[in-house]
Write a structure and sequence with these properties.
With 53 residues, the chain is α+β, with helices and mostly antiparallel strands. The chain has a domain at 1-30. The protein is built from one helix and three strands, in the order βββα. Strands 1-2-3 form a three-stranded antiparallel β-sheet, with helices on one face. The protein is elongated, with a radius of gyration of 11 Å. It starts with 5 loop residues before the first strand and ends with a helix.
Amino acid sequence: MKYKIQCGRETDGRWIAEIEELPGVLAYGKTKKEAMAKTEALALRVIAERYVD
């Protein structure tokens, strides 16, 4: 599976990253790299939970 992480910068300077195909998978970070890493980690947890259930 491949998912695209979309990033953007908020007006307060924080970065937000999300994966639209996985509802609720989004995270903020001080940098773009941090936001993307947090989002990727969350996506892995969400996908793993789907296989356990």
